[in-house]
Write a structure and sequence with these properties.
This is Aryl-phospho-beta-D-glucosidase BglC (GH1 family). Pfam families: CBM46, CBM_X2, Cellulase. InterPro entries: Carbo-bd_X2, CBM46, GH, Glyco_hydro_5, Glyco_hydro_5_endoGlcnase_B, Glycosyl_hydrolase_5, Ig-like_fold, Ig_E-set. By secondary structure, this protein is an alpha/beta fold. It folds into 3 domains: 320 residues, Glycosidases (TIM Barrel), CATH 3.20.20.80; 91 residues, Immunoglobulin-like; 103 residues. It has 15 helices and 28 strands. It has an 8-stranded parallel barrel, surrounded by 4 helices. A 5-stranded mixed sheet has the order 12-19-18-14-15, with no helix packed on it. Strands 21-28-27-26-23 form a 5-stranded antiparallel sheet, with no helix packed on it. The two termini are 44 Å apart.
């Protein structure tokens, strides 16, 4: 994926408020000191070593950046303190993606800049000394020049071989906790992609093994085409591994979820049965093809693709359900996972998680399941009498225990009833919680289960949203909206004849953050230049804004040149 220790005491306290546990920072690290854990690893089988790598974290948008140095994509320089901070979160392995092309000299030697290689080596040394397993790769080179292998075969192969010859020589005597990965997300323009990848993987394997030292039996990671978990690509990689006949090989894929859910397009704004099944099927295929046959698997990157633009692209409760199930499947299927973090999750300057609730769910999933619910939002309309509301619980093998409101425990009967997986909040409770004036979240209930983390249930006071007319320009157009406490889930766009308008013309449901985005503080829904670029001139487009309360609001926009006229539906 791409482009997109005093402080630790505060993090531990904040995390403790969510999980009831205290984070303990590791002791001081002595640079270059041998690690007892490193020595112990040598006796482990490949499967045991990969299991010991769980969980893992990606040092994304750092050495994989395509600029001059590791800071060119906005992240700070890596320090031992950063690695200490990640170790304190419970992570046991770090994937260090590296893009090499801008640090290589010309043909025929393709010499890697000595200072850059030394810097990568320094950070790897810090990480291993800190107790981590480290996975090192060739990263964005995959789409920058390796993808041209079909038309420029010999030059691409020579450059690829030159990188691995130099890297293998540099790290031949590194501890066995260093793991090498052939290439990130391999892709090719033309030719036989499967055959081209097999050739690269075979060359990688040959070069590393021939370099001697610790590389003779070092764990090597081979990807599928596109690091896809589709069965055809899994089968191709399994055949490659059989041909190489090396017990120290690991398979890798990436997983960013069912695509419509992962970016919030085509109506995929919920972690529904389709999105859940996609996740379940992926783990089944990976386990059956590799793990069940004794070949370890690392999901080298996971997350949600929409996070590259904004972590709010997917609604909080829906994303928490995704990560809860993902973590459970990783444990059940014996797969090691590495969270993709390009800086949007763990703040590398403040050493805190930007979303503690999300991290609490991820961390809990390493050990157990958590109860969730059909939603994390309960909407109570101000303009009508308050009624009781029932929410379906996803118990996930846990038992429901209680509901907390701050320091108080709600009373079963007067405040709520529970029947199996059906939780009913009484009208009396909802009335009490929403009696103050104004819109928005009036209370956050904490649903407790016998295991795992609590489930936050926000009680939201709202009325039906409305939109106002406006004239603007396609490069900066925003619909004035009175949200009245409600929250936008998705948007559809169609022409008068019922055909789909805007980007992704195969669906009426447009992509969150790419075609539209709410700004609650400004009271607007922005329609992006990307949206208008694919709207026919002079033809009215009927928009329907779908809100999490279930309300919908109609609106029409018409573009003539750069001018856009917006009018609310009658």
């Amino acid at each position: 994926m791409s482009r997109l220790l005093g402080r630790l005491g505060g993090l531990g306290l904040a995390f403790a408020l969510i999980t009831g546990s205290i984070l303990t920072p590791p002791g001081p690290v002595q640079a270059g000191a041998p690690s007892a854990r490193t020595s112990a690893q040598a006796a482990r089988t490949p499967a045991q070593a990969v299991a010991a790598m769980q969980p893992g974290w990606n040092l994304g948008n750092t050495f994989d950046s395509t600029g001059d140095d590791e800071t060119s994509w906005g992240n700070p320089r890596v320090t031992p303190q950063l690695l200490d901070g990640i170790r304190a979160q419970g992570y046991k392995s770090i994937r260090i993606p590296v893009t090499w092309v801008q640090h290589q000299g010309p043909a025929p030697d393709y010499t890697i800049d000595a200072a850059y290689l030394a810097r990568v080596k320094e950070v790897i040394g810090w990480a291993i000394d800190d107790g981590f397993y480290v996975m090192l790769d060739i990263h964005h080179d995959s789409w920058q020049w390796i993808n041209g292998m079909a038309s420029d075969h010999d030059a691409v192969l020579a450059r690829f071989n030159a990188i691995w010859t130099q890297v293998a020589s540099t790290f031949r005597d590194a501890p066995s906790k260093l793991v090498l990965e052939s290439v990130n997300e391999p892709q090719f323009a033309g030719g036989d992609p499967a055959a081209l990848l097999a050739e690269l993987n075979a060359n990688f394997h040959r070069i590393v093994r021939a370099s001697g030292g610790g590389n003779t039996d070092r764990l090597l990671v081979l990807p599928t085409l596109h690091t896809s978990a589709d069965q055809v690509h899994l089968d191709n990689l399994a055949s490659e591994m059989a041909a190489l006949d090396d017990p120290n090989l690991i398979a890798t894929v990436h997983y960013y979820g069912y695509w419509p859910f992962s970016v919030n397009v085509a109506g995929g704004y919920r972690f529904d049965a389709t999105a859940q099944q996609d996740l379940l099927d992926t783990f089944t295929r990976v386990h059956t093809t590799f793990v069940a046959r004794g070949i370890p698997v690392i999901i080298g990157e996971y997350g949600l693709l929409g996070f590259d633009r904004h972590t709010g692209t997917i609604e909080q409760g829906e994303k928490l359900k995704f990560f809860e199930l993902f973590g459970h499947q990783a444990r059940a299927r014996g797969v090691t996972t590495m969270l993709w973090d390009n800086g949007q999750h763990f703040d590398r300057t403040q050493m805190v998680w930007n979303d503690l609730e999300l991290f609490a769910q991820i961390r809990s999933s390493w050990q157990t399941r958590s109860g969730t619910a059909a939603s994390d939002l309960v909407f109570v309309r101000r303009a009508t009498p308050v009624l009781s509301q029932t929410i379906k619980l996803n118990l996930n093998g846990t038992g429901f225990t209680q509901i907390r409101l701050g320091n108080s425990t709600l009373r079963r009967g007067p405040d709520y009833q529970i029947s199996g997986d059906q939780l009913t909040l009484t009208a009396a409770l909802l009335t009490r919680l929403t009696r103050t004036q104004g819109y928005g979240v009036k209370a956050s209930l904490s649903l407790r289960f016998s295991r795992g983390v609590p489930w936050r249930l926000d009680v939201v006071s709202f009325d039906r949203p409305s939109a106002s007319g406006v004239v603007g320009v396609s490069g900066d157009f925003a619909v004035p909206v009175t949200f009245s406490g409600d929250r936008l889930a998705t948007m559809t766009a169609v022409y008068a004849d019922g055909s789909n308008a805007g980007p992704h013309g195969w669906t009426a449901y447009k992509e969150f953050d790419r075609a539209f985005a709410p700004d609650y503080s400004a009271g607007t829904i922005r329609l992006t230049p990307d949206f208008f670029a694919e709207v026919r001139e002079g033809e009215p487009v009927t928009l329907t804004f779908h809100f999490w309360s279930g309300e919908t609001v109609g609106y029409t926009v018409t573009r003539v040149g750069a001018e856009v006229t917006g009018t609310p539906a009658a």
